[in-house]
């Protein structure tokens, strides 16, 4: 890296103790001398042979070899000798005497005196100089440089061949592209290596090292920085052309692939795809049939989806190419895009129409099946004879029947709506939908839909007629149960009246007036009981009529009617007993009050004592009557009131009888004589 005082390059040959191969040394010198430019070689070389660690014979051989390797370029050879051992041998061979024969001057010099011939700043530390030099660093950079030079030169040739081939005719161009379109090395990698090398060289040139001289001939001339820059410029130029060639080739290849794929999509959709739809026209006659057709349609859609996915990808690729803005391809790309879109949208519309039609058919058949099941359930309910336990269950059954009929009405209305919607879709099914006339197939579908709706209407009408009959029968049964319940209620009311008569209607009154009021109340009480009995009889007669109409046996004929008659008979007997006691009490009180109210000054009113006897007899009869129970036809007995009530009434009668008896005694006694008499 250093220079002598003539600006010639300094070449250092270090020798060592080991055996030095002259052949390897010769090759190394040839390589090193090939590095500098011709301008540098013209200034000559100064060769430093470091023989301090070698033998004299080796040093002499090396010096002589320089005569054959670089005789013209070498101007001075400095042999660095050891401090001893060579003095005697030098006398046998003087290099200065051989200057003319060798072609250059040879100087034997010690290492510390080498600065006499070369500036210290151009010598390395091994020779007492200050020149900074790292041989491994130089070697690595040299290897990088040579690798870059070799790869870039080869790459330039390849890129030139590829780029020049792009200017030939179409067939020749395609053939060259196909034959060797890709270079052997990556241009990006080579360019990056060159830039890194150039950056390192420029940094060393301008920064210097360790405060030394900033200019270094090793970088500028030995590593040929201009050569790196020139190679990089050439590479960038050829690589830019190569990228454009690749872009054009890629665009042309992509366009051809797009054209091929577009035609594949169009041919399949207009061919096998349309043929699949042409074979599918029915809507099925049941849910299962419609579901099978839907499953088949889903398989067709699945096959179409694969091609639609290709369509989406192609559409994106075409859009990307259109955005690139190459005018020469715009018309062709737009035509391809329009053709592809038209075919795909038309086929997608056909698939969607078919799917909607099958979905509408499935909904129609679902509603029809639900309605059929509702009609079957309603018919089954109507066919079962009604045998409810009471009127509430009949009302509940009637309500359920009405709800089912209403549900059937709603179901039939829904069926008509679904059917009409399906018919509208079928009527809108034009021949373009499947590429053929579908009138015959549509007529079969229309006839099926209308037939289903008419059949459901007839079944619903039959069920309505049966519901009307069943409703009338159930209303009569409700009336029958109501009559039976009311008749039973009449019996309960009459029983309550009888119970009230036996337990609460027991007073006989304290005087005639009160007894007459009680008698009048009792007659009204009997009228209420009579009305209740008559009401029960009428209800039972109505049940008989309803049973005859319904052709069933009334439970009242064996239960309610005998109970009603039995309770009424008991009430009648009890009422008659009550009337008899009240009438007897009226007679007793009236007679007793009459005699008790008569004045003593009128003895003529009691001329006959039989009247007192009669009152006494009536009172005793009434007392006896109070102790006698009411005997019913079945032999059962009932007392009117409790024993305490009867004792209270009897006590009151006895007191009044006692008053009458005292009155009688007063009338029998003779009146005492007055003083005048």
TrEMBL record:
<dbReference type="GO" id="GO:0070273">
    <property type="term" value="F:phosphatidylinositol-4-phosphate binding"/>
</dbReference>
<dbReference type="InterPro" id="IPR001251">
    <property type="entry name" value="CRAL-TRIO_dom"/>
</dbReference>
<dbReference type="Pfam" id="PF24915">
    <property type="entry name" value="Spectrin_SESTD1"/>
</dbReference>
<dbReference type="GO" id="GO:0010314">
    <property type="term" value="F:phosphatidylinositol-5-phosphate binding"/>
</dbReference>
<keyword id="KW-0677">Repeat</keyword>
<dbReference type="Pfam" id="PF13716">
    <property type="entry name" value="CRAL_TRIO_2"/>
</dbReference>
<dbReference type="InterPro" id="IPR056804">
    <property type="entry name" value="Spectrin_SESTD1"/>
</dbReference>
<dbReference type="GO" id="GO:0032266">
    <property type="term" value="F:phosphatidylinositol-3-phosphate binding"/>
</dbReference>
<dbReference type="GO" id="GO:0080025">
    <property type="term" value="F:phosphatidylinositol-3,5-bisphosphate binding"/>
</dbReference>
<comment type="similarity">
    <text>Belongs to the SOLO family.</text>
</comment>
<dbReference type="GO" id="GO:0005546">
    <property type="term" value="F:phosphatidylinositol-4,5-bisphosphate binding"/>
</dbReference>
<protein>
    <submittedName>
        <fullName>SESD1 protein</fullName>
    </submittedName>
</protein>
<dbReference type="GO" id="GO:0043325">
    <property type="term" value="F:phosphatidylinositol-3,4-bisphosphate binding"/>
</dbReference>
<feature type="domain" description="CRAL-TRIO">
    <location>
        <begin position="1"/>
        <end position="135"/>
    </location>
</feature>
């Amino acid at each position: 890296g250093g220079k002598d005082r003539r600006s010639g390059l300094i070449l250092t040959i270090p020798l060592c103790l080991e055996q030095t191969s002259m052949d390897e040394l010769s090759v190394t010198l040839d390589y090193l001398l090939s590095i500098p430019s011709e301008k540098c070689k013209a200034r000559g070389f100064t060769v430093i042979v470091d023989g301090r660690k070698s033998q004299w014979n080796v040093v002499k051989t090396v010096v002589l070899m320089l005569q054959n390797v670089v005789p013209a370029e070498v101007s001075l050879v400095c042999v660095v000798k050891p401090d001893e051992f060579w003095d005697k041998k030098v006398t046998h061979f003087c290099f200065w005497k051989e200057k003319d024969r060798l072609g250059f001057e040879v100087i034997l010099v010690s290492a510390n005196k080498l600065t006499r011939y070369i500036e210290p700043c151009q010598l390395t530390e091994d020779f007492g100089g200050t020149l900074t030099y790292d041989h491994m660093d130089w070697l690595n950079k040299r290897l990088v440089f040579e690798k870059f030079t070799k790869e870039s030169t080869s790459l330039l040739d390849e890129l030139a061949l590829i780029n020049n081939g792009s200017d030939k005719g179409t067939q020749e161009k395609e053939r060259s592209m196909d034959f060797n379109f890709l270079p052997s090395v990556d241009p990006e990698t080579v360019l990056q290596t060159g830039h890194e090398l150039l950056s390192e060289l420029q940094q060393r040139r301008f920064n210097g090292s360790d405060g030394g001289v900033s200019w270094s001939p090793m970088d500028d001339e030995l590593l040929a920085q201009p050569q790196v820059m020139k190679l990089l410029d050439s590479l960038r130029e050829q690589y830019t052309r190569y990228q454009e060639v690749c872009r054009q080739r890629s665009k042309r290849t992509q366009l051809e692939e797009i054209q091929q794929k577009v035609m594949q999509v169009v041919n399949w959709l207009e061919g096998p795809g349309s043929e699949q739809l042409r074979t599918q026209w029915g809507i099925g006659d049941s849910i299962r049939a419609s579901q099978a057709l839907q499953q088949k349609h889903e398989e067709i859609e699945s096959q179409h989806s694969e091609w639609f996915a290709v369509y989406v990808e192609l559409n994106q690729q075409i859009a990307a190419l259109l955005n690139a803005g190459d005018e020469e391809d715009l018309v062709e790309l737009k035509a391809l895009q329009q053709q592809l879109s038209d075919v795909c949208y038309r086929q997608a519309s056909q698939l969607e129409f078919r799917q909607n039609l099958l979905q509408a058919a499935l909904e129609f058949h679902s509603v029809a099946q639900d309605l059929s099941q509702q009609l079957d359930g309603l018919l089954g309910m109507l066919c079962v004879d009604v045998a409810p336990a009471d009127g509430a269950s009949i009302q509940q059954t009637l309500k359920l029947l009405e709800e089912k009929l209403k549900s059937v009405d709603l179901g039939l209305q829904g069926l008509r709506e679904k059917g009409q919607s399906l018919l509208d879709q079928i009527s809108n099914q034009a021949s373009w939908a499947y590429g053929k006339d579908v009138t015959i197939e549509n007529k079969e579908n229309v006839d099926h839909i209308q037939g289903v709706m008419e059949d459901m209407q007839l079944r619903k009408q039959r069920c309505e007629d049966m519901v009307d009959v069943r409703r009338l029968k159930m209303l009569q049964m409700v009336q029958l149960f109501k009559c039976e319940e009311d008749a039973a209620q009449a019996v309960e009311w009459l029983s309550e009246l009888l119970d009230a008569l036996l337990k609460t209607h027991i007073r006989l009154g304290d005087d005639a007036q009160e007894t007459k009021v009680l008698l009048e109340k009792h007659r009204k009480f009997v009228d209420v009981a009579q009305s209740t009995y008559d009401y029960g009889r009428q209800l039972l007669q109505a049940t008989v009529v309803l049973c005859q109409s319904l052709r069933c046996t009334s439970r009242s004929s064996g239960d309610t009617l005998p109970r009603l008659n039995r309770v009424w008979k008991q009430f009648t007997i009890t009422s008659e007993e009550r009337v008899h006691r009240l009438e007897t009490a009226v007679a007793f009180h009236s007679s007793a009050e009459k005699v008790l109210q008569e004045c003593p000054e009128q003895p003529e009113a009691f001329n006959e004592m039989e009247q007192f006897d009669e009152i006494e007899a009536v009172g005793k009869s009434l007392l006896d009557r109070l102790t006698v129970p009411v005997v019913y036809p079945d032999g059962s007995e009932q007392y009117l009131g409790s024993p305490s009530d009867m004792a209270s009434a009897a006590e009151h009668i006895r007191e009044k009888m006692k008053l009458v008896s005292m009155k009688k005694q007063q009338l029998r006694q003779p009146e005492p004589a007055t003083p005048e008499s």
